[in-house]
Amino acid sequence: MIQHKRNQMTNRKIHIIGGGTFSDVKAHLALCAPAFGKTAKQLKEMAEDRFGDKMDIELHLTAMCDGGDSKLRTNADIDSLLQKIVADPLTKVVILNAALCDFSGQIDSDLQRLDSSRVYNMKLIPAEKVIKKIRSERKDIFLVAFKTTAGADEQTQYLAGLNLMKKNHVNLVLANDVRNHRNMIITPEEAKYHVGFNREEVLRNLIDMTFLRSHLTFTQSTVVAGEPVAWQDERIPASLRAVVDHCIAAGAYKPFNGATVGH
Predict the structure, then answer these.
(1) What SS3 class is residue 33?
(2) 3: pLDDT confidence band, cut at 50, 70 and 90?
(3) Would the N or C end of the chain have less CB density within 10 A of its end CB?
(4) Nearest to residue 161, comparing CAs of 144, 186, 183?
(5) How crowded is residue 54: how many other Cβ atoms within 10 Å of its Cβ?
């Protein structure tokens, strides 16, 4: 029993983050991204079935979906949590299902609490994206993210998910449309899988792909300062140049948002 506990303590961790956040504007007034943790809870149950006792699974829910007991209320709170998760060497997988408020609101008024009999204009300011910080510091973390569209066709939905993936070096993106309820899983090699309308089936496939891909070996590399080797340098095998040049001529390795396939 003691040995079992020690092994459990050294297991790699999966962190699942769910629920919506608030962005305070004035007293008794806030913007929010409504989400109530149902998907995050499903993902935890599915992860427990798929990963078994191989990894420790931690579920983090925001105050919006746990009755207000959680300390995770704003985007800044999620950011602080992610900093702790990234700093933990045992972190292996992060599934960021939380709906973070995309804007902060600004009203030109000195009143702390607005007069409800008056009309005010609010300026919406794009919020900083916290997701980009995860793999910029830890390339060994397997990151799963979600992208929501509303009434998009399949190609537009795919491109929205791919854009999120490439900008933030995400390993898997589940793109879902809240109007037509289409779901798809997008991969770094720019493929889409499990396109359909059965939400539970797509989530289960997402966990299965996360399990299989996160267990691949990862070789940490370090970029050092210095002059790059020219492509025509004799140290590069001619056979390699021939293959790569052929692939480029055929349209391979085209970057999307500054990142190539696999980023």
Answers:
(1) coil
(2) very low
(3) N
(4) 186
(5) 12
Output the six-digit token pair for 38: 């149902």
Question: Model confidence over 64-107: pLDDT tens digits?
Answer: 998 778 999 999 999 999 999 999 999 999 999 999 999 999 99
Give the three-class secondary structure for 159. Answer: helix
Tokens of 210: 């996360």
CA distance 110 to 139: 45
Q: Are 219 and 140 in contact (CB under 8 A)?
A: no
pLDDT of residue 1: 38
Who's near 79: CB < 8 A, 6+ residues apart?
Answer: 130, 133
Number of residues written out for the chain: 263
Q: Which two three-digit tokens encode residue 24?
A: 């305070």
**Residue 227 in tokens:** 């002059």
Alpha-carbon dihedral of residues 88, 93, 97, 99, nearest 10 degrees?
A: 30
Please provide the distance, in angstroms rounded to a whole number, between the alpha carbons at the two ends of the chain: 43
Residue 7 binned pLDDT confidence (cut-offs 50, 70, 90): very low
